[in-house]
Amino acid sequence: MATGKVALGRLVLTTREHMIALEPRGKGLMGTLLRYPYEVRDEADYFEDIPNIKVEKEMLDLAKHIVQTKAGHFEPDKFEDRYETALREVINKKAKGEKIEVSRPESPSNVINLMDALKQSLVAERGEKASASAHGGGKAPKAAKAKKPAHSKAAKKVRKAG
User: Fold this and answer.
1) pLDDT of 9 over the 50 cut
2) What is the DSSP letter of 32?
3) How many C-beta atoms lie closer than 10 Å to residue 142's C-beta?
4) What angle do CA 23, 36, 149 make, to 5 degrees?
5) Sheet with strand 7-13: strands edge to edge
6) What pLDDT score was predicted for residue 116?
7) Beta bridge partners of 11
């Protein structure tokens, strides 16, 4: 009988006690580790330095359109753990006695205006002719001021004994 409820419990993993929520899923149970209050930080500690910016309606509509056209069901088989794959390759080479060379990441060779490229993509999708602004005739967006990484108050807080 489905009750629509989850069970809460305690579980020890790696020498530490955790809270866990258990819920029925198909023929089994799914466990989700929960956080204690001292592990949950106030979002203001992390985001207070981010300025409030007014996003243009055109950009917001474009972002919504991209999300809607790219939305789909999650298919884990389409993803690969590239880190593990690369690590296994290095381990296999080392085991065979091969020389391991450090490869540098490729730097992008073609820098484009993302907003213009997105507009052109939309125009092409609709089968319309590109406007002059979509071909670089429009204003380029202002560059965001580079910010230092926020060293938040949370990093200075000491874990409370509980």
Assistant:
1) yes
2) E
3) 7
4) 115
5) 7-13, 16-25, 28-34
6) 80
7) 18
- CA–CA distance, 24 with 13 (Å, rounded to integer): 21
- Residue 67: helix, strand or coil by DSSP? helix
150 SS3 class: coil
Q: For residue 51, give the nearest of 146, 115, 152 by alpha carbon.
A: 146
Q: Which DSSP symbol is given to 17?
A: E
What tokens does 52 get?
């409030």
Identify the residue with better confidence: 105 or 40.
40
Which DSSP helix (H) or strand (E) runs through 31?
strand 28-34
Q: Is 121 exposed, middle or buried, given 0-12, 13-18 or 19+ CB atoms closer than 10 A?
A: middle
Write the pLDDT tens digit of every residue in 129-161. 444 444 444 444 444 444 444 444 444 444 444
The residue type at 138? G
Cβ-contact 124, 67 below 8 angstroms: no
pLDDT in tens, 81-124: 999 999 999 999 999 999 888 877 777 667 677 778 778 877 88
> Would you mind telling me the total number of residues written for the chain in this entry?
162
3-state secondary structure of 101: coil
Cβ atoms of 123 and 129 within 8 Å: the answer is yes
